Amino acid sequence: MKPNELGELLRQLRGKRSLRDVAKETGLSHSYIRDMEVGIRQTTGSPLKPSPEALKKLSNAFHYPYDVLLKMAGYLPDEFDSERIEEKLSRDPDLRVIFRAVENLTESDKEFLLNILKRTFPGAIPDDK
What's 38-102 look like in SS3? Predict the structure, then answer.
């Protein structure tokens, strides 16, 4: 991946819309969106890694796959495949129930559940999640 491939993609997805238009639609500041496109935090000059929450908002605004943005930002490994996951969810009703339940959990609840799974099924869940 090129150094600011994510920023270039975000700029392309924005197209002719202004930063302020996208800011209104996403609830993100126009300066933060600009910083994401450039890949550098304007106030400090340091590299910027967009938050998953910001990427989700941009994904919704641009109608672009969230998992692709997460991969480009380095949050998901290359082997993550949303199509494979969707296929498994479509074939397994129990997985769908689990997935829906997890969507409604708080971060602390998810962490608690993950710890239980790790203790109950050692080796099934890698330490790095």
Answer: HCECCCCCCECCCCHHHHHHHHHHHCCCHHHHHHHHCCCCCCCCHHHHHHHHHHCHHHHHHHHHH
Q: How far apart are CA 96 and CA 126, in angstroms?
A: 22
Q: What are phi and psi of 40, to 5 degrees?
A: -135, 135
Domains of the chain with bracketed CATH: 5-73 (1.10.260.40), 82-120 (no CATH)
Amino acid at 99: F
pTM, to two decimals: 0.61
DSSP 8-class letter at 15: T
Side chain identity, residue 20: R
Residue pLDDT tens, the chain, 129 long: 456 899 999 999 999 999 999 999 999 999 999 999 999 999 999 999 999 999 999 999 999 999 889 989 988 876 666 677 778 888 989 988 888 888 888 888 988 988 898 889 887 776 654
